[in-house]
Amino acid sequence: MTLALVNMSHSPLLQFSEASREVLDDLDGAFGAARRFAADFDPDLIVLFAPDHYNGFFYELMPQFCIGYEATGVGDYDSEAGPLDVPTEIAQRLAASVLVDGVDCAISLKMEVDHGAVQPLEILFGGITAKPVIPIFVNCVAPPFAPMRRVGAFGRAVGNFLRDLDARVLLIGSGGLSHDPPVPQIVTATEEQRKLLLNGRHPTAAARAARQQRVIDAAKAFARGEANIRDLNPKWDREFMSILSSGQLDRLDDWTAEEMAAEAGKSCHEVRTWVASHNAMKAAVGEYRSTFSYYRPIPELIAGFGVTTVLPVDAGA
Ligand SMILES: O=C(O)CCc1cccc(O)c1O
Ligand SMILES: [Fe+2]
């Protein structure tokens, strides 16, 4: 086993925003650093912790964690559609091992993934089939949420399996830090939104376009300071990132979902992918160190945007 980790925020607004050249160039610099890190590491396998935004997982049956044995990109926001290259046999052994380790985890023989899983693969590797990847869904948008200590335990169970796997594995955690994009909420949903949240699989092109346009318009208003969504919280984001880089992951155990959303917006729960992946890293390798870290609050993307790369302490300089 040899491990490396990349955590990165995502935003489908990257392709649809009015962010300035300066902002996009700055962000591209961070993507470049993460891309070089991934290329240097040259993984045999990617283990990708990702949220879903009501494209593959719905309230009809909402797990907290799900390991994909096969997976397909749905192509929202022009993200790449089609099958991922999932090594099914390893995914099966991973799931069995996580269960034996004491964390109840769903499996999917036909997972559908959205920009949350696809965007980091596109940015780091140029596409969804460039490398074998095991996608792992972590519920980050649909309350109620697993307690943070459970997210940690899940990550460690994944790490315990990877420790004994004979492969170079790149862990990825995908998702924003503080942010509050207008994803429909079950408690305030209209009749039509309720249908989407319950089982909105495979919407018509028109329905998808309308839904996405709402988010694109909200981003433009937010950048002008006019949207009715929660502000980004750079202080919270920086503190969260410094806890992860400190290695003291148990400091996150008692964070409650309500406090997190109150401080950093409803979609800040996407940090659960960072927490799971860091716990996996720590369980597999022991001490780790950050080798690159970028942060910038980017309202045009509705994202406190972070990019970090991490190696085991004993991996050399
Ligand atoms: O329409 C959606 O599905 C939400 C899109 C979205 C926007 C900003 C940051 C994100 O992380 C994100 O996922
Ligand atoms: Fe997201």
In this entry the ligands are: 3-[2,3-bis(oxidanyl)phenyl]propanoic acid, fe (ii) ion
CATH-defined superfamily: LigB-like
Percent helix, as a range, is: 25-40%
What is the CATH top level name?
Alpha Beta
> Describe the biggest sheet?
8 strands, mixed
Overall mean pLDDT score?
A: 97
Low-confidence stretches: none
The helix/strand class is alpha/beta
Structural overview:
The protein has nine helices and eleven strands. The protein is globular, with a radius of gyration of 18 Å. Helix 2 crosses helix 4. It is of the alpha/beta class and 317 residues long. The strands form two sheets. Strands 6-3-8-2-9-1-11-10 form an eight-stranded mixed sheet, with helices on both faces. A three-stranded mixed sheet has the order 5-4-7. The protein has a single domain, classed as LigB-like (Protocatechuate 4,5-dioxygenase, Chain B), CATH 3.40.830. The two termini are 18 Å apart. It catalyses: 3-(2,3-dihydroxyphenyl)propanoate + O2 = (2Z,4E)-2-hydroxy-6-oxonona-2,4-dienedioate + H(+); (2E)-3-(2,3-dihydroxyphenyl)prop-2-enoate + O2 = (2Z,4E,7E)-2-hydroxy-6-oxonona-2,4,7-trienedioate + H(+). InterPro entries: DHPP/DHXA_dioxygenase, Xdiol_dOase_suB. GO terms for molecular function: 3-carboxyethylcatechol 2,3-dioxygenase activity. This is 2,3-dihydroxyphenylpropionate/2,3-dihydroxicinnamic acid 1,2-dioxygenase. It comes from Microtetraspora glauca.
